[in-house]
Request: fold
Amino acid sequence: MKPKAHSPKRSLVMNASTSRLRRLGAFLGQGFLFSVTSLSTLTVFFIFYFIAKDAFPFFKLEGFREFFTSTHWYPSGHPAEFGAMAIFFGTGLVTLGAVAVSVPLGISAAVCLSDVLPFNTRQIVKPVIEILAAIPSVAYGFFALVVFAPLLQNHGGIVLSTGAWLILTPILSLLVIVLGDLLADRFPEALRRKARWICTLTLGAAALTGMMMLGNHLSAIQIASGTNALNVSIILGIMALPTIVSVSEDALQATGRELREGSYALGATRAETIMKTVIPASLSGILAAVILGVMRAIGETMVVWMASGNASRIPEPWYNMLEPVRTLTATIAGDMGEADHVTGSARFHVLFAMAFCLLTFSFVMNLVSESIVRRSRKKLGK
Amino acid sequence: MRLETRRLLDRAFSSLGLIAIGVMALALVVILTPIIVRGSGAFIFRSTIEHRKVMFDQWDRGNAGRLETAKAEVAAARQPVYDMLAAFNTELDAMPRADRKPYKQSLRDLEKALAGLLGPVPGERTPVLIRQQYGATRWDRTQIKLDDVLTTEEWDYSDPTALGKLVRTPRVEQFRGTKLEPLFPYVEQNIKAMMQPRWTCYWQFLFDTSKDSHIFGGIGPEVLGTIYLTLGAMFFAIPMGVIAAIYLCEYAREGRVISFLRICISTLAGVPSIVFGLFGLAFFLNTIHISDSKSVLAGALTLSLLVLPTVIRASEEAILAVPRAYKEAAMSLGAGRWRTVMTVILPAALPGILTGVVISMGRAAGETAPIIFTAAVSVGRPLLPLEALSQPTPALSWNIYNLCTEHEAVDEIRHVQYGMVFTLVAVVLLLNVFAIIMRARISKKLRG
Reply:
């Protein structure tokens, strides 16, 4: 077909009817775009509605009290018991563990990325974070179950003490050097050099003995089951890292050059600039990052299902990370297979009730983090 | 504080950050290394004669003549083992009844261990299960099975205060002084002749169906299922996501409605993936009955909702990154808004959009929780495209879970599990590396 040439007769000035037609077309087109957009965004209400619709029958059948206060979880027993407190507790414990792993690590990495590393190195490090974020959760779960859990179970003490050494050695040695230096400052000028040596060495020796004792204590521990809260917390922490790093790095970057340059101009070192100026200015963004990391850890299914041990009871004592736990997501995933042929029973609806709790929690968390980010943006004038 | 102390603090601070990054990189290496190393073992490994037999019998692969000669060699090497067993049986028959008894159970155990290593005894009736028709197909499994033949393992619970202890004794102790005693050194020394290990590249692992619940064969149906699910999810998510992004960037005026829509999108991004799965079950399957049972279609729709926020955000970013001058130039040439979007902005933003799409493809391929209730089954055959509308499928992500937790012979098929994880991770990482490279090129172009 020949390309249609523009007719020379077509006037450049539109008459009223074409103009109206065009406006109508534009209006319709815009309406179409708007409807598609709202359809895709309003899905979230669909999700709320359908989860709630299947969750409320449970509360109608069984009430709220048992669900939130009892730890007896026997959905298939006679009579069935639906005490989910231990499951809520397990979710909380695992999330707390993940936060303990990922927040310190993530924030220091974000600071390093945004303020310490030169541009070229940053370009190398960023893909590492992206790859960590991209690895599917089931692969993390597989690693936790097939590689990490047997390691914990068979060589638990060694793994724990090696981990403690790996984490504490750099931190303690930095602490010893800095403290030694600070202590040496108290001495008169003439003695200072010697004093510094002595202080550093004594502190170092003390730290080393402490570490030895801790290491011995840890390596005596025997772990009964490799699929436990500790395993899951570490893996979830690694999974939440990319979120925390990239969001808090954005927040740190968003504070801008002027603030940093002002601080440097007043004679502050880089550490002082970051600790006293940059981090306070971007605190809300970092908080949002932590919230997003928490949401990632709470919502994760496969890792906890595979490697948490799925025992619905509160560990003894409650902070014992070496006991198996069970989480909301794992319960939903694991019990639905048995429950979906009894649609309509409390056993089916209780899983929706759990999903509803998860959904509400993540919704509230999301609103909080959104409002934090928005407020901080306003404060920074962007 | 002295200047030097401050400098020291500064250094310490920087090194803490560097350590954090080091730990992160270390975690990545620690997680990926076993997956890559052992995962490639599903493709490249030392196969035994049994593997070649399986390939020939079940898939018609390999040279019949060469296999026959190899079989004859192996049979000759294995014959003394069966001869010794036969001799022992006659010796047993000659014994008085009381002496015979203790050997009975030991002999049965030994025969079972030997069948695990070498396959069924030649001349006997072929077993029904395929897994019992062949011996160890891989050299690494051969070592383990050989160990089963040579030693017995027992748990010792005599000390009630400690965990049980594993006691390993050579199996030959049970047969001291009988005609079976020379069997054990014979098997140990001639294992290579009996199994003929050889390096093999089993690339068909990716495409073969599995036989006897993944003990033999490959992961073809799972790979195909993952492809269907991913492409299906993108089929729904791309148009919706790109249109939403165009509307949000180019048409919408900032206001109440738009900020409300944005909150919806970020909420959608924060919904836990298992909740998507439940929603898919409650809505697509139980409410609008999109198919009678779980189906690829329902799974793809669920996954598309999951990746929608990612696609919208990535497309928005790509559209916003198009220089204003492009748009203004198009407008000043008299193009309407629609025409500007279609002819100028979208082509310029396309690489960016594609980057986002590729990343969300990786996400869709790897997600498990949304498809548990909507699309995934443990065992299935490869589906035709049209069947995907109404039938469930195995998928890599789900089968990884299934094989390493619910399979009846978890330890036997470690290589299949690792092979699946390796394939999934490789696919996702390749997609991501592609996206990273593309993004680097775009940013270079935009910087000029």
Chain B is about 65% helix and 5% strand. The radius of gyration of chain B is 31 Å.
